[in-house]
Amino acid sequence: MQYNEKLNFLLVALLILVVPAIQAQKPVVHELSTSDKVKIETLLSTMTPDEKAGQLSLFLSGWDTTGPVLRADYLNLIKEGKAGAIFNAYTVDYVRKLQRMAVEESRLKIPLMFGYDVIHGHRTIFPIPIAQACSWDLTAIEKSERIAAVEATAEGLNWTFAPMVDISRDPRWGRVSEGAGEDTWLGCKIAAARVRGFQGDDLRANNTLMACAKHFAAYGAPQAGRDYNTVDMSMISLYEWYLPPYKACVDAGAGSVMASFNEIAGIPSTANKWLMTDLLRKEWGFDGFVVTDYASINELVNHGIAEDFKDAAWQALDAGVDMDMQGSTYLNHMPELLNEKKITPATIDHAVRLILEAKAKLGLFEDPYRYCNKSREKKEVMTADQLDFARHFVSQSCVLLKNPGQILPIPAKVKTIAIIGPLGDSRKEMLGSWSAAGSWEKCVSLFDGVKKMAGDKMEVILEKGCNINDYDKSGFDAAVRLAAKADYVILALGESCGMSGEAACRTSIGVPGVQNDLAEAIVKTGKPVAVVLFNGRPLALTKLASMPVAILETWFGGTEAGDGIADVLSGKVNPAGKLTMTFPRNEGQIPLFYNGKNTGRPLDPADTADEYVSRYLDCSNDPLFPFGYGLSYTRFSYSGLVTKVDDHNISIAVQVANTGDRDGEEVVQLYVRDKVGTVTRPVKELKGFQKVLIKKGETQAVSFNLPFDDLAFYHPDLKKYWDPGEFVVYVGTSSAETLSGSITVK
Ligand code: BGC
């Protein structure tokens, strides 16, 4: 063979061997050794009912000014072998101290697990999850969780209460900041990437964390967007839109699942046997354990489904919920329930076995201190590489919403930049909600980042102008005076990080306080204005977007926020982020999402005379910024959509040209509409995407292969299959701007 032929041969061989392995993305297998199994059965036969109830109990650790502390009664429980796991406890010395009590002082020496909400980084804080999703970069998302796992395990942790994979279509709900957005298909891909990132391919390794898919199920669909509120929906919607991301976590091998606070159709998840046993275990084959959300067994009393905590404990255990987070209901009532024969020893043993198996999967029986390594704690946390990646990830997560007259990037000729606004020099707000062990003192503010970027080429001046969320305009004059001195203004506006996240819902989701008025005052100076937005949810930006300003959505970027944003502002990075949640024009449009139904009376934008159609009198049906939307500093043009149908697949190809004057990445999106289904189908559904780098002036062919199975949906019998017939295929730069072609699948 000639050299070239040999090379080709090797390449093909490599493709045959490697590509299927990568594509298959096999779930992590956590095989238990025979000795583990024997150990677990021996323990089960020796444990008292109290010790068993203890294994099913998870307790909270706290912090005071001197560092981490555990309540005296919890310390005693550990020594008595009546605690299975501790959460919020980290740092090697502290974890070692608690673990030593368990494995040296308790009768059966069963090690503890240590859990924590490592949601978007542990010490190095990455952009909040919704921001990460806007990068449409699964490799980066997985990598960020890998780093989070390395850092968290270097400090004694072995279990994270993540990923949060709740689909939500309601931006009033504060926890949209923790999720991937409104789309189920993308949500599944991101969910699996996160599980892989945390768990790696070996849970026993000392740098992998056990994942916990949460909040099972449908926690993201509370009525009125109010946290913890009732969830009620059709089974088809539940199966089609809300359940798949949890299933994706299970398929990716997630070791645990967290029950959600909410009820679904009258049964709270924590007492929902259908959800926890029939669906999760029997149908999906989940072999890990289920933990409650914070005291959610106790809350069954408030829900009005249990008489008291004892009744609640019985219902939860019977439903298939294995571990009680912070509620002590199992510990206090299980032995009694057993005596009264309300629960069987087998039911308890089943739950305890799952907890012990989790400990074995983590390698804790082999070495209970495997996550307590002082030298790792020093060396593997906030390294230069980790911080570099965090900075890169910030720039990938930004979404350019508006850029009239190419206000961004900041022109090289600019000599003085004024940073104005309540978020201009904030480090504290950069972390976003759930910042684990992240420290705000280590965050780079926008001002810090822009100053570094400007070096001695530009002067950067600062004025706050107003607070985030009050009505005080006394700082406006100083801000306007400062803007007048500059030749370019960056307006740093948005929410505080506490305005989204758990128990942080809003009914008005505009830019809070008087910030829009500040923007108006600054715009009047006539200076070019680029708004940098910080927020944890889609905002109703109608007023701000009507001003002649550029708007860069940066969410909350974490530790490296300021540097990553400066990279985009300067043009070093060309933004390529795309929204994964619709931005409505106003709150009255909520819920508004791209994959809605056509209805029997769809609005025809060309026929405004028809009154009796599905529309508002006072607002357009369209969002302000649709799902999948995001601009670039360059321009992309789509042409030549070709579709082909063979026996099992649809192939789709399109030409994407970079017609602007700089290189850029584009997220090419594929959507499908099933024209006639057994049940009505959405007007568009995301079915694929590719993030491609296209050099200026070049055109790239982008192709997709869509197996017919990807057209499947849930039918009234809750079975998933596809219906033959006509489909419309859309390819484009957002859910609203696409080329389309029609195909028939027989
Ligand atoms: C949240 C969970 C979290 C838990 C432990 C709860 O209030 O809903 O997401 O994992 O607290 O911190």
**For the terminal residues, how far apart are their CA atoms?**
45 Å
Q: In terms of per-residue confidence, which ranges show pLDDT below 50 for 5 or more consecutive residues?
A: 1-24
Helix/strand-derived category reads alpha/beta
State mean pLDDT (0 to 100 scale): 95
The unique ligands bound to this protein are:
beta-D-glucopyranose
What does the largest sheet look like?
6 strands, mixed
Total helix count?
22
CATH architecture of the domain at 382-588: 3-Layer(aba) Sandwich
The first-level CATH class of the domain at 382-588 is given as Alpha Beta
**Gyration radius, rounded:** 27 Å
Keywords:
single chain; 746 residues; alpha/beta; Rossmann fold; Immunoglobulin-like; 31% helix; globular; binds beta-D-glucopyranose
Present the secondary structure layout.
Elements: H1 3-24, H2 34-46, H3 49-55, E1 57-60, E2 62-64, E3 67-69, H4 72-79, E4 85-87, H5 92-105, E5 113-116, H6 129-133, H7 138-153, E6 159-160, H8 184-199, E7 212-216, H9 235-242, H10 244-251, E8 256-259, E9 263-264, E10 267-268, H11 273-283, E11 289-291, H12 299-303, H13 309-319, E12 324-325, H14 329-339, H15 345-361, H16 374-379, H17 384-397, E13 399-402, E14 416-420, H18 446-454, E15 459-463, H19 476-485, E16 488-494, H20 515-523, E17 529-534, H21 542-545, E18 550-553, H22 561-570, E19 636-645, E20 649-658, E21 664-674, E22 685-694, E23 699-707, E24 713-714, E25 720-721, E26 725-732, E27 738-745
Parallel strand pairs: 1-4, 1-12, 4-5, 5-6, 7-8, 8-11, 14-15, 14-16, 16-17, 17-18
Antiparallel strand pairs: 2-3, 9-10, 13-18, 19-20, 20-23, 21-22, 21-26, 24-25, 26-27
Helix pairs in contact: 2-15, 3-14, 7-8, 8-10, 13-14, 17-22, 18-22
The protein binds beta-D-glucopyranose (BGC).
